[in-house]
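Dear colleagues,

As part of the handover before I leave the project, I'm documenting each prediction I ran so the next person doesn't have to rerun anything. This entry is a single chain, and its sequence is reproduced below.
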Amino acid sequence: MFEHITASEIAGFGVGGLLLAATVYAPKIDSFISISQRSSLGMCKRCGDLRLIACSSCKGTGTIKGGPFSSILLEDKSKVGSSSCTKCRARGHFQCPECSNLSQA
């Protein structure tokens, strides 16, 4: 099965695997670097002294779209069914738990 594979094809598979791994782990590496930079500057590691964190359900918008492909399939965004986010009560953000604990103490 693999007797007719050339060295350049093997190298292509290796490079493709590395690119895939870099794509998958890029957000994790970026968050690790930003947390270390915030801590070295004496800022809050979670929010960067903004005292607010974006809601994970609505991504900070306050509304949730009707379906996973609704914005792609429909060009008119007024027809897209959206509802207000119940997790953040349509605000789009929460108070940072680390900063709010420090200010109350």
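The chain has two domains: 1-42, 49-105. The longest helix spans residues 7-40.

All the best with the project,
I.
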